[in-house]
Write a structure and sequence with these properties.
Layout lengths: L5 E5 L4 H14 L2 E8 L8 H8 L5 E5 L1 H14 L16 H15 L3 E3 L8 H12 L4 E3 L10 H10 L15 E4 L4 E4 L29 E8 L2 E5 L2 E2 L2 H14 L4 E7 L5 E7 L1 H17 L2 H19 L6 H13 L5 E8 L2 E8 L7 H4 L12 H18 L6
Parallel strand pairs: 1-2, 1-4, 2-3, 4-5
Antiparallel strand pairs: 6-7, 7-12, 8-9, 8-13, 9-10, 11-12, 13-14
Length: 405
């Protein structure tokens, strides 16, 4: 422990990280630098400054990372139509590499020789933070208190806070029974009644979305403009990446879009049930596939779909900064050069319905696809040889008397 002189702590100002701050000061006898990220979680981050100052912290970083988060992490992920295990839109996963990056940047700026986080030894986040940190600064020391201390319950944390005069409210507004994480892409819920996989989630749990049953009886129409695979305007109004996502969250939430209740496979080996609200992301995924349907070559689109589960797994398991993810990203980004145009959507009671898509670079040719007279644009007789050649191997096998099963 003597080799740790200064540590950068990912600090929210809540119970866990406030206890960690004091624990680091006492256990490692080191200076602590706090870093609080505004990723659009919807809570005030500035109060963390006063709390850190009260605990003797001299170097305090509070950074608005919303635009960087959406521009450099969320948008690139959605260019790949990324979904983990068929459902999860990776709202927590995609925020961690940015936090890891900023932790290392601050460590370099302040001369710190260690970083610290509040992720537990049971979850994925410890892996995501630390893989990112080691990729960006191989020699950095990582301190994960949940893997070292014996404060393994909320009551023990509260007792520690009280004993050391840490400014935490022991009583006050009712605490949510769920473990929650929020950013501009999503809000997640774990724990509480959700630990029984047969128990239905509670309606009053949801924060961002109305229930589909209570959503408006009149649909909402949207037009999303794409440039190189990213949304640049909503209903003709140009917006920054963060504003795009915040706007889609609001409109989607009003229409009951983006709720999810799943059991996922964590990287550490256990299964975990979680509920998620991702209204803007749900809209983005549907719309992006719609614009790609008319602008991407068939084999390019199919190859992207084949590679997507691997790409999703890399993000989920914390390998954003790995060479294989970076290689895949270059290919994905190259595929988006012609993904330009407009998608029209109808939002209605939890549903995202594509009602139109158009692009100057569309590969859809009505003269060829028509069921009416095509004026010779497509010779239907050509299909006979095409079919026979593709059936050749099966015809040979059948002539040899081979059984199909």
């Amino acid at each position: 422990m003597a080799d740790v002189n200064k540590v950068v702590l990912a600090y929210s100002g809540g119970l866990d990280t406030s206890v960690i701050l004091k624990w680091l000061q006492d256990t490692y006898n080191c200076e602590v630098v706090t870093f609080t990220a505004d990723l659009g979680q919807g809570e005030e981050v500035e109060p963390a400054r006063a709390k850190a100052q009260a605990m003797g912290v001299k170097e305090i970083y509070i950074d608005d990372l919303r635009e960087e988060f959406v521009r450099d992490f969320v948008f690139p992920m959605f260019r790949a139509n990324t979904v983990y295990e068929g459902e999860y839109l990776l709202g927590t996963s995609i925020a961690r590499p940015l936090i890891a990056k900023r932790l290392i940047e601050i460590a370099n700026e302040t001369g710190a020789d260690a970083i610290s986080h509040g992720a537990t030894g049971k979850g994925n986040d410890q892996v995501r933070f630390e893989l990112g940190a080691y990729a960006l600064k191989p020699g950095v020391k990582v301190i994960a208190p949940w893997r070292e201390w014996d404060l393994l319950s909320r009551e023990k944390l509260m007792d520690y806070a009280e004993k050391h005069a840490i400014p935490i409210e022991r009583h006050g507004k009712k605490k949510s029974p769920y473990s929650m994480d929020a950013n501009l892409l999503h809000i997640s819920y774990e724990g509480g009644v959700l630990e029984d996989t047969w128990t239905e989630h509670e309606e009053d749990m949801w924060r961002w979305t109305v229930s589909p049953e209570n959503a408006p009886n009149v649909p909402t129409y949207l037009e999303l403009t794409y440039s190189n695979g990213d949304i640049t305007a909503i209903d003709g109004v140009t917006m920054s990446p963060a504003t795009v996502l915040a706007t889609l969250n609001r409109i989607g939430g009003e229409n009951g879009i983006g709720r999810l209740d799943i059991v996922e496979n964590r990287y550490v080996g256990m299964k975990s049930r979680g509920c998620y609200e991702t209204p803007g992301g749900t809209i983005m995924l549907r719309a992006h596939r719609a614009i790609e349907s008319i602008t991407l070559d068939r084999e390019v689109a199919h190859l992207k779909d084949e590679l997507m589960p691997k790409y999703a797994s890399l993000i989920y398991t914390g390998y954003w900064w790995s060479p294989e993810r970076l290689m895949l990203q270059q290919m994905i980004d190259a595929s988006q050069a012609h993904v330009n145009g407009v998608v029209r959507l109808k939002l209605y009671k939890g549903n995202v319905i594509v009602t139109g898509r158009k692009s100057d670079e569309s590969l859809f040719d009505a003269n060829i696809a028509t069921f009416e007279e095509d004026g010779g644009a497509y010779n239907q007789a050509d299909a006979a040889g095409f079919i026979k050649l593709n059936a050749l191997r099966m015809r040979i096998a059948a002539n040899k008397g081979r059984k199909l099963f």
